[in-house]
Amino acid sequence: MMGTAQSRPASGEPEKLSEHYIEADVSLVERTLRSLKHGDAFAVMDGYGDVGSAPGTPEGLFFRDTRYLSRFELRFEGKRPLLLSSVIQNDNAALSVDLTNPDIRCQESDGIPRDLVSIERTKFLWKDACYERIGLRNFAEHTVSFRIDLLFDADFRDLFEVRGLDRMRRGEVAAKVLQPDQVEHTYVGLDGARRRTVISFEPAPEQLQPQRATLRVTMPPHGQSSVIVRIAFEEGAPNHVCDFVTAFRDKRRENRKFTRGLATVEGSNDLFNELMCRSTSDLYMLCTETSAGLYPYAGIPWYSTVFGRDGIITAMQTLWADPAIARGVLGYLAATQATSYDPTMDAQPGKIMHERRQGEMARTGEVPFRRYYGTVDATPLFIMLAGLYEERTGDMDFIRSIWPAIKAALAWCDGEGDRDKDGFVEYFRETEHGLANQGWKDSHDSIFHADGSPAQGPIALCEVQGYVYAAKLHAARLAESLGETGWATALRSSAEALRQCFEATFWLEDKGTYALALDAGKRPCAVKTSNAGHALFTGIAAPDRALRTAQTLLSQDGFSGWGVRTLARGEPRFNPMSYHNGSIWPHDNSLIALGFSQYGLKEEAAAVFSAIFDASLHQEQRRLPELYCGFLRRRRRGPVGYPVACSPQAWAAASPFALLEACLGLRILARERMVVLQNPVLPAFLDEVILRDIQVSGEVLDLCIRRAPSGVSVTAPRRTGDIRLTVTS
């Protein structure tokens, strides 16, 4: 993910910004935006349901990384209607907007005073098209006549253009009226692809022009009328849209199908329940059905596509609740794993993909992300997820199907991932147009030394060594199950050697934490960052050092009150408004909490959960954003928003599931048909939580965890089959 503020290295000179930096003329938190998504299409609208009413925003209807509609505005007698309410429905199926007419010629005989005509807009996406119903109702005691104008345009900008990249050349745009009820906008790009936006109206407008539709409406007292608009996105083959009612019905059916295997959560706190409902809806809205199964696209508006790291971590966070997401992610990434060397894509055999883009600029090579492998952590994380998935499901048949990909990923870790053979996995970009930093903190200024100077690659990140350690232990267990016992022993030995080398090299005794990274000269980046928390998440940290790391992370410099900062206050480059150098990311905090839990630090995990929960109370619709600023928590004030944060974001939406797992110490062992709660605690805002429909090896378990005088009590109100429940302290 990219989007950072400019910083200064030790020399005092401003660093050159990444060419993939997200320019911000308008803050995304400046006004209410509404987002919808289905498949490869997503929409960003204002509260009115309009698109393009304000310049410089990412509003639009996008399909495969191209903006197919850059303007769509509704006018009542030439004026903008008055907004009454605007809400995304609870399941994210549709946007519902209630409007009314403004005052129109009130001093004239044919005038219409405000609040006489109700305007209800319902918008949703389904199968590469946007559907809208504009419902009109006359509450006057007399007949009213008025004009509705719909203003529209399609600029076919690539998403990277919308983000701020300039282009020397573009393709050809055209627009024409096809039929009395249909308009076509086309774009022939530099990649040779022909893209079309086809807008259809029902009933046919009185006047139809390439950028405007005008409808005359006359309604008797208490009369009703409606207008249906269908906007189809086409690239190549025509898109045959269906009627509004059928599409809306099928959309809701798909929503129910996606969540069929999900365990649900209900707590004693209604605000917590709102958070879980919103997170669930956001998570499954971001999921796209691929040939391998569900894949959670990273976030709207900048990252609505496949990201390897994001998909894997989202799957880990939700694994206990719905392992189908993990299966879809593993299957897709195994199928797209690199099989050859290609420096233009930072690809090497065995490497797991970082990012896939389908827009014009990716296809022409103006950006390298058509299929880009410039990530150092997705490959070991892929192996980790495979092991965790098998532990959760016992699905060895699926593991056998991706076993060659797992072995290739392990070979990359020991081969191209460790070119200098020092035992650590490092990154160094092969293309100057790729990402300079290739961990999850991939902004240009995020990896540096204690004097603020940037680290020079190849770079070995703290958390990546933990991922490799855990990956080898998981792979060893899988290898043993597949009869490869000799290799399993070798993997465990390699993991232990890495652990010892990691402790000897990365630990910073004077700072009570692990170094952010090692540079090309093996010098530690001796700064206090949240990356060290991932060492706990993976289990590579020694127990005594894990405790000290937790204390450092939760110190006043590391913990703002709204969560653990990416970079501790007082460190060079600390900036609470930056992308990676002092901000707070919910997903980062959830992995840190899981790490705390692994070392028995349950109260610390609960403190992190409480901070993230409190932050959610200040977010519209309880939607956790990608990140927010790391300013110190103050009384009677909420967290400070980040100007270009994605919202919704998959791993932010999945964070409450992982935070709850951390507090409960929840572990599901499918082979043993066992559910384990290791020293469960409840965060301060919950007295009770009920988990329903936890599926284990074809059986179902419900759990009730309730606060008690001596801790918590655990009961199983429903249990089918022979599932065992174990609670340890």
From TrEMBL:
GO biological process: one example: carbohydrate metabolic process
Q: Which residues form the Putative glycogen debranching enzyme N-terminal domain?
A: 36-227
Gene3D superfamilies, per this entry? 1.50.10.10
Q: Where are the transmembrane segments?
A: none
UniProt-recorded name of the protein: Amylo-alpha-1,6-glucosidase
Write down the species. Alsobacter soli
Q: Which residues form the Mannosylglycerate hydrolase MGH1-like glycoside hydrolase domain?
A: 313-616
InterPro entries, per the entry: 6-hairpin_glycosidase_sf, 6hp_glycosidase-like_sf, GDE_N_bis, MGH1-like_GH
Q: What is the lineage of its organism?
A: Bacteria, Pseudomonadati, Pseudomonadota, Alphaproteobacteria, Hyphomicrobiales
